[in-house]
C-alpha cells in the first residue's frame, strides 16, 4: 500500500499511524518502508559559483563546523536563465526508513520518535538533513535551502 501522511520525517509516520488508532502490532507487521521527502531549489547551472559561508551560517546546519570548512560550497549568482534568483528547478531530499527487526521491536514496545530515528540511523538511514548535506557537497543546492526545508 502507498499512502501519504503529512509528517516531518519517516520515524514520525510510525507514531502518527499509532496515534490514528492503528494498533502497534499491525504497524510493526504490515509496514515495510517509510519515505519522507522534501523539495529544495536547485542551484542554477549557468551561474553556479563557489561561495564561502561564515561560521554562524555553518552552525545553522547543526554539524561540527570543522567538518564543513573544507567543503566546496556553491551558490547561484543570478543570471537570465534563472531570472536572477540563482536557482533553477528542484531536487528531492529523501529519508528512507526500512523497518528492521530492531525497529519492529521498538514499535511494539512503544518507542519514541527519537528512539525510532536513532535506531533507523543505526540501521543505515540517512535523515533529510544528512541527504541535504550530500546534495550541498555535490553542489546541487545551498545551505540555506537545506536548513529551511529540514529539521535540525
Structure description:
The mean pLDDT is 90. By secondary structure, the chain is of the alpha+beta class. Helices cover 41% and strands 19% of the residues. The chain has a single domain (10-149), classed as Rossmann fold (3-Layer(aba) Sandwich). The protein has a two-stranded antiparallel ribbon with strand order 1-4. Strands 2-3 form a two-stranded antiparallel ribbon. It has helices spanning 10-19, 24-30, 55-59, 65-68, 101-109, 113-122, 128-137, 143-149, and strands at 33-43, 48-50, 74-76, 87-98.
Index terms:
single chain, 152 residues, alpha+beta, Rossmann fold, two-stranded antiparallel ribbon, two-stranded antiparallel sheet, 4 strands, elongated
Number of DSSP strand runs: 4
The main pleated sheet reads as: 2 strands, antiparallel
Instruction: Report the span from N to C terminus.
Output: 30 Å
Strand content: 15-25%
Oligomeric form? single chain
Stretches where pLDDT is under 50 for at least 5 consecutive residues are: none
Number of domains: 1
- Rough shape? elongated
Q: Give the second-level CATH assignment, the architecture.
A: 3-Layer(aba) Sandwich
Order of helices and strands: HHEEHHEEHHHH
Number of helices: 8
**Neighbour order of strands in the largest sheet:** 1-4
Compute the average pLDDT: 90
- Let me know the CATH homologous superfamily: P-loop containing nucleotide triphosphate hydrolases
